[in-house]
# Entry
Amino acid sequence: MSVLGPALVLAAQGRRVWTPESASTGAPRHDALFYFLLYLSAFFFLLVVGLMVFFAIKYRRRREGQRTSPLAGSRRLEIIWSVIPALFFLLLFVWGWREYMSLAVPPGDAMDIRVTAQKWVWTFDYPKEGISSNELVVPVGRPVRLTMSSQDVIHSFFVPAFRIKRDVLPNRYTVAWFEATETGTYDIQCTEYCGTGHSQMLSRVRVLGEREFKEWVDSGGGLSGKGLSSIEFGKLLFKSKGCATCHSVDGSQRTGPTMLGRFGARTTLVEGKTVVVDDNYVRESIMDPAAKIAQGFQPVMPTYAGRLKDKQVDALIDYIKSLRR
Ligand code: CUA
# Structure
């Protein structure tokens, strides 16, 4: 194992055919096992099917009344075809078990980040640094432990380039970890169907050098709103809090009504009443989305009560106000 492992890692690195780019310490190890399994299966598939076809042709019945010659067992053959697969199974078990353990147990010195999933946005909180962000920003070459939970339904956190995927559940914590090996930007996807906005539930991991990461932390990280006008802060929140998943700002209708030119306009509700979209209507729609549903839309928006501070709601309203036709 100790010699075989690294050798296969090298072999797999040169043959990235079916796997995405790899940017974590775990990725090449994952790929090595994947390719080993793939090629092993391919080899035995060809061997078994090849022999089957060959025997079917060679020993086919050639004339009426031809009898099969009597068969005697071969102990040697039976031992060979039992022992060789058993050894492969054992190898795969030990190898898979070791990989599983290294995936399941984060190193003790890992940096902590809390991941919160909700329809349909990811939030990353840095408890030590006191930062909240909608992009996962991490330093290169340092192990990172993600403690994840969901505010509503089951989501699944997936970073293809790191080969980590873990379900994110309500009322429970799940843990994943990684150590990025390359600076750059990588995709985060949700891989558990979680409702209308599931396919839009995307984010990024930004891997920075140690110095750039420190600068990012010092600047207050993602969602501080430091140095921004209320409208700019609102725009940032609109994207980062998931509003933009369902509400466009260009006039196109998605799961929810567009915000372009909406403020100040009259809107018809499902029960036929007409209301003016003013500060109070927007605030109520954020805190208690089901209270007044606009005609032509489903009551699918989750509540943001307790998830936004007053200042953030104000900023969102200011931003929506600024979206004139
Ligand atoms: Cu969250 Cu799919």
In short: The longest strand covers residues 111-118. The two ends are 66 Å apart (CA to CA). The chain is about 35% helix and 20% strand. The CA atoms of residues 143 and 269 lie 50 Å apart.
